[in-house]
Write a structure and sequence with these properties.
Elements (H helix, E strand, L loop, with lengths): L3 E5 L4 H12 L3 E6 L2 H15 L4 E5 L5 H15 L4 E4 L14 H28 L5 E7 L10 H21 L5 E7 L6 H14 L6 H7 L9 H12 L10 E4 L7
Parallel strand pairs: 1-2, 1-4, 2-3, 4-5, 5-6, 6-7
C-alpha cells in the first residue's frame, strides 16, 4: 500500500513543488490549501502524471480548528491512513516594530504557529489511530533561529515553531512518530520574498534590483535557497533513513546559520 502524505499549503509555490516531488517519490498526496481551486489544480496535474487517485485537493483554513479537523476526517475517509504531514503554510508581514500592527502580528502567529499546532495535533491522532510510524515536518525558516529585522511577528512565530516541534517530538516518540522542522534560507525567487523586496530595499536604503544580491552575499555558499534544496532534505527526513532523528531544526541555509 502506498504511503500517504498531506501537504498543508500545497496549492502554490513551494508547497506545490513539494506536493509534486513527494508524488514523484511514490506517495499518494493530499493537497490542502486555503485556495481549493489551486489545490485541485495541483492534484489534477499529479494525477495526470501518476494516475487517477494519486492525489486529491481539499480546502483548509489551517488557522480554523473545525476546518483542520474536517481535513483530517476527509483524509482518513479517502485514504485510510497518513504517513507524512508537511506544514508548509506561511505568511510574512514586514514593518519596524514601532509601526507593526497587532493584527499583522496575530496573523503571523495564527498562520505560522497556531496552524502548525492544529495540523500536527489532528494528523498525529490519525497516525496513532492507524499505528503508523509517521513523520511530521514543519517548513520553518532561519528566522526561527535568529531574529529578523522588521519581521518581529514572523520571527516570533517561527521561534515558537521550534519549541513546538521539540515538544511534539517528546509527546509522540512513544508512538514512533518523528517531528522535525526545516529551517530554510532565503527563497529568493519565491513570491513571498519577491513581495517583500520593496520593503527590504527601503530598510537597506538601496534600489529594489540590488536586494537579492545583498542577501546572496550573506550566504557562504553564495546563492539563495531553492525549492529543490528543501525537497531533498524533506524526503530524507520523511524516510526510514532518518528514523532516529526527531525534535531537530535542520538548517537549509547555505551556511548562513550553523547552529
Amino acid at each position: 500500500m502506498k504511503q500517504v502524505a498531506v501537504v498543508v499549503g500545497g496549492g502554490q509555490t513551494l508547497g506545490e513543488f513539494l506536493c509534486k516531488g513527494i508524488a514523484d517519490a511514490g506517495y499518494k498526496v493530499v493537497v490542502a490549501d486555503l485556495n481549493v481551486t489551486n489545490a485541485n489544480k495541483v492534484a489534477e496535474e499529479i494525477n495526470k502524471k501518476h494516475g487517477a487517485g494519486t492525489a486529491k485537493g481539499f480546502a483548509v483554513d489551517a488557522t480554523n480548528e473545525d476546518s483542520v479537523i474536517k481535513l483530517a476526517q476527509d483524509t482518513d475517509n479517502t485514504f485510510k491512513r497518513v504517513d507524512l504531514m508537511v506544514y508548509s503554510a506561511g505568511i510574512a508581514r514586514a514593518a519596524p516594530i514601532t509601526n507593526f500592527t497587532l493584527s499583522d502580528f496575530q496573523l503571523s502567529v495564527n498562520v505560522n504557529l497556531t496552524g502548525y499546532f492544529l495540523c500536527a495535533r489532528e494528523f498525529a491522532k490519525l497516525m496513532v489511530k492507524h499505528k503508523t510510524h509517521g513523520r511530521i515536518i514543519q517548513i520553518n525558516s532561519k528566522s526561527g533561529k535568529v531574529g529578523s529585522k522588521h519581521n518581529s511577528g514572523y520571527s516570533a512565530a517561527k521561534f515558537g515553531g521550534v519549541g513546538l516541534t521539540q515538544s511534539l517530538a517528546l509527546d509522540l516518540a512513544d508512538y514512533g512518530i518523528t517531528v522535525n522542522s526545516l529551517m530554510l534560507g532565503n527563497l529568493l525567487k519565491s513570491p513571498m520574498f519577491q513581495s517583500l523586496i520593496p520593503q527590504y530595499a527601503k530598510k537597506l536604503g538601496i534600489p529594489d534590483e540590488q536586494v537579492e544580491q545583498v542577501y546572496i552575499d550573506k550566504v557562504p555558499l553564495k546563492r539563495g535557497c531553492d525549492y529543490q534544496d528543501v525537497l531533498n532534505v524533506l524526503l530524507f527526513y520523511a524516510s526510514d533513513k532518518a528514523s532516529y532523528c526527531t525534535g531537530q531544526s535542520i538548517n537549509i541555509t547555505g551556511g548562513q546559520v550553523m547552529f
